[in-house]
């Protein structure tokens, strides 16, 4: 009986490790009885609702990893972004690093005459934890929130050079659109 339980636990752990190797972003740990494998996500996502020193520091660390041209976030700038009714700023916290913020994403929902629209902006995961499923968790949570808000489609853009991010978006279910994206930049 004990040998059968051990074999079952070993098989569960082996399946868990294979799932992790396939890039599901799920970490598996032994259960409390030591005999079963339980799925434990490496991070948890939550909505940023207040601006504190930790959030400001996390933005200062993460945003330059997305684009070095972004202005340095300040407490004042984040105090305008976080409570904005159209924004949902999600942060990912790493369970294995004292719940340190290791990722962020902003879901922007807005109304236009043709219906509610949404876009996902400024997705960035700390280089130390990329490839562990953090980006997928953030993206899936943003999609859940968008659906709860009655949005029928969510758009996002990603540079072609961000191959891993583009692969992630396709894996999550995004489809490439045939459209042109234009930008007008104001001179300073």
* Superfamily (CATH H level) name of the largest domain: Gcn5-related N-acetyltransferase (GNAT)
Radius of gyration: 19 Å
The CATH architecture of the largest domain: 3-Layer(aba) Sandwich
- Structural class by helix and strand composition: alpha+beta
Helix content: 25-40%
**Average pLDDT figure:** 83
Strand content: 25-35%
Number of E-type strands: 7
Oligomer state equals: single chain
Count of distinct structural domains: 2
Order of helices and strands, N to C?
A: HEEEHHEEEHEH
SSE layout:
Elements: H1 2-21, E1 27-30, E2 37-40, E3 43-47, H2 53-66, H3 75-81, E4 87-94, E5 100-112, E6 115-125, H4 134-148, E7 154-156, H5 163-172
Parallel strand pairs: 6-7
Antiparallel strand pairs: 1-2, 3-4, 4-5, 5-6
Task: Please characterize this protein's 3D structure.
The chain is of the alpha+beta class. The relative contact order is 0.12. It has helices spanning 2-21, 53-66, 75-81, 134-148, 163-172, and strands spanning 27-30, 37-40, 43-47, 87-94, 100-112, 115-125, 154-156. It has a five-stranded mixed beta sheet, sandwiched between helices. Strands 1-2 form a two-stranded antiparallel ribbon. Strand 4 and strand 5 (100-112) form a beta hairpin. It has two domains: 2-40, no CATH class; 43-172, 3-Layer(aba) Sandwich (Aminopeptidase). Helix 4 packs across helix 5.
What's the short version?
The protein is of the alpha+beta class and 188 residues long. 35% of the residues lie in helices and 26% in strands. A hairpin with a 6-residue loop joins strand 1 and strand 2.
């Amino acid at each position: 009986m004990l040998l059968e339980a051990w074999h079952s636990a070993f098989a569960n752990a082996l399946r868990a490790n294979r799932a992790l190797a396939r890039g599901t972003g799920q970490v598996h740990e032994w259960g409390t009885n030591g005999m079963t494998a339980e799925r434990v996500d490496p991070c948890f996502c939550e909505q940023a609702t207040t601006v504190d020193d930790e959030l400001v520091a996390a933005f200062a660390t993460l945003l330059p990893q997305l684009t070095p041209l972004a202005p340095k976030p300040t407490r004042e700038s984040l105090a305008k972004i976080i409570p904005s009714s159209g924004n949902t700023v999600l942060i990912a916290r790493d369970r294995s690093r004292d719940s340190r913020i290791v990722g962020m994403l902003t879901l922007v929902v807005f109304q236009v005459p043709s219906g509610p629209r949404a876009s996902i902006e400024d997705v960035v995961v700390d280089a130390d934890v990329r490839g562990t499923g953090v980006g997928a968790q953030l993206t899936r949570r943003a999609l859940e929130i968008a659906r709860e808000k009655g949005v029928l489609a969510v758009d996002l853009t990603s540079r072609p050079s961000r191959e891993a991010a583009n692969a992630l978006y396709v894996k999550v279910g995004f489809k490439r659109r045939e459209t042109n994206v234009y930008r007008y930049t104001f001179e300073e």
